[in-house]
Amino acid sequence: MLPGSAERQQAAGWEAEAEAEAAAAEEAAEEQVHVEAGAAGEPECKTGGKLLRDLAPARPRAAEEGDARDAPRPSPSLPQSKGAPARGRCPHGKPRGKGRSCKRGSGRRPDESRARRPVTVDSSKARTSLDALKISIRQLKWKEFPFGRRLPCDIYWHGVSFHDNDIFSGQVNKFPGMTEMVRKITLSRAVRIMQDLFPEEYNFYPRSWILPDEFQLFVAQVRMVKDGDPSWKPTFIVKPDSGCQGDGIYLIKDPTDIRLAGTLQSRPAVVQEYICKPLLIDKLKFDIRLYVLLKSLEPLEIYIAKDGLSRFCTEPYQEPNSKNLHHIFMHLTNYSLNIHSGNFVHSDSANTGSKRTFSSILCRLSSKGVDIKKVWSDIISLVIKTVIALTPELKVFYQSDIPAGRPGPTCFQILGFDILLMKNLKPILLEVNANPSMRIEHEQELSPGVFENVPSLVDEEVKVAVIRDTLRLMDPLKNKRENQSQQFEKPLAGKEDSSDSDMATTPDVNTNSDAHLPSICLKQVFPKYAKHFNYLRLVDRLANLFIRFLGIKGTMKLGPTGFRTFIRTCKLSSSSLSMAAVDILYIDITRRWNAVTLDQRDSGMCLQAFIEAFFYLAQRKFKMLPLHEQVASLINLCEYHLSQMDEKRLMCGRSGTLGCRHTFSATPQEATPLAQLPEGTNPPHPNSANKLSQSKHVLS
């Protein structure tokens, strides 16, 4: 018992804090059972090596005699109890329950006790990234649940897609719809929309045609160019839409060489202009695998890993001709193909072999006088522009799987960007991978048909750092600890008690929790460089309009009523565009897009069909302007009408009357009636299209 009423009141003040400590102790007890169970049956590992040392679970320290009997050091503000407590009882003499600590104050700061609970990671669906993930978790001193967990975890690591498991809280390392968005056809369509708006900004992606839908267009355009320039002898590369790891890719010199033209309906593909003049190192063609973290969709946050991998072909490069067109080890850089070449070189050095670090390539280029900062600047620009092209439809997928107002996790994702450097050092986007390989070992053939997995130090160096630092950036407890620390220090500022001063100066155990780790390898590029790229986000604003008029939560397609509501609300109909014409426009575009898209889950207008309809309306309304200015002007007009409507509703809500008839109060700039605005004039809006005149390429 505490002597005196003052002491009892002070002890009561620590009750709430001890509650959290008790909950943490409960969870720690449960986790300890898992650890002890795993350690009891753990076989001895004899293979050794850094990888296995990092993966081996740490055995819990055996309790020493007297641990249970030793009372913790009492708080300076509380008088020390007389006599030691009995075994099995808390320092205050009460029975100690299993997994529970004493509810009275221990004198510690709240965040000190809570810091004992590590971040929990469910790795039961991690698949091929499991080994690198295990190493990362151990380096961070977090808690892994390889077989899942009955209680919710902080982070769920999926190997394939968002839907690998049903998640209702925490964070998951996949965005819904990302796998669909980076497929070759979908990516090509998304980039093509941006190329229509900003052709010079998106010239880093080869010209593409979608097969079989655009086969006749492909044949006609190639013939037209050849007729105009007989010396033009192009090469094209055909990539199956659902292919991966180089499966089904081949080169052609003429459209008539496309294989299985009659069965392309069952396996659609993309055909692109082949880059015939790549940068060579040691006479070999190579590409770059860069890892990009999409940390958040709204607001948009993008990080790029400071290092990546360079994958080399295994046969000296020659420009394509009829004799070498089918030499895959010369033209295709896919690791999964070249590993089967007799010339493939496994190396533990980052500077040699058929797989090297990108930083080693940059060092080599720098030694030859290449401006490495310019190369990085161009790559950063490519990555940001590509993500900007992907985010509009990702938003539609996101609101479908995680509707606003319903429980669901937050998402992040590591993407693999495959980039080719041309001879003039211009980066070219080859493709984007939603599930880049995170394996840190390779197969080595011991004898014919007998293989063994051998650790790859180059892969481990790059991939473990990417996963570990992604987890550090996504640490869900970091912000909580910082907020708790700030809240705890505020009441202490006005107190003069010496014991409180001692606690106030006690260092936070989490402040240096990353002191043993290297600096984070991921560099933020957006919103850091947002001012240089925000003018490109027109389609992103279009997606916001589309989502607003979807109506039903969870749907991804706009019905005819929603489209008519959009036209009426934004006042886009006129004497030259009747509502009957609007209905015909909706039917024609929707029918055509439903015939070429694979997603038949809902009937209605998909986002890409809505974008086509919007472009048509913009071209009708704002003639004699470039397409991007037409679209920007119509977006401004729509957002202007919607903001007026929203503000009027807000004023009606404040007045408490349903039939609100006040005159709408506007700023002096907005006071001009809309009918008086000349055709082609943008209504006032904070996101004006005038930003197009800003500098576009300067990256510090």
TrEMBL record:
One of its GO terms (molecular function) is metal ion binding. Its main location: cytoplasm. It catalyses: (L-glutamyl)(n)-gamma-L-glutamyl-L-glutamyl-[protein] + L-glutamate + ATP = (L-glutamyl)(n+1)-gamma-L-glutamyl-L-glutamyl-[protein] + ADP + phosphate + H(+); L-glutamyl-[protein] + L-glutamate + ATP = gamma-L-glutamyl-L-glutamyl-[protein] + ADP + phosphate + H(+). One of its GO terms (biological process) is microtubule cytoskeleton organization. InterPro entries: TTL/TTLL_fam. SUPFAM superfamilies: Glutathione synthetase ATP-binding domain-like. One of its GO terms (cellular component) is ciliary basal body. It is found in: Cytoplasm, Cytoskeleton, Cilium basal body. Gene3D superfamilies: ATP-grasp fold, B domain. Keywords: ATP-binding, Cell projection, Cilium, Cytoplasm, Cytoskeleton, Ligase, Magnesium, Metal-binding, Microtubule, Nucleotide-binding. Its cofactor is Mg(2+). Polyglutamylase which modifies tubulin, generating polyglutamate side chains of variable lengths on the gamma-carboxyl group of specific glutamate residues within the C-terminal tail of tubulin. Preferentially mediates ATP-dependent polyglutamate long side-chain elongation over the initiation step of the polyglutamylation reaction. Preferentially modifies the alpha-tubulin tail over a beta-tail. Required for CCSAP localization to both spindle and cilia microtubules. Belongs to the tubulin--tyrosine ligase family. This is Tubulin polyglutamylase TTLL11. It comes from Orycteropus afer afer. The gene is TTLL11.
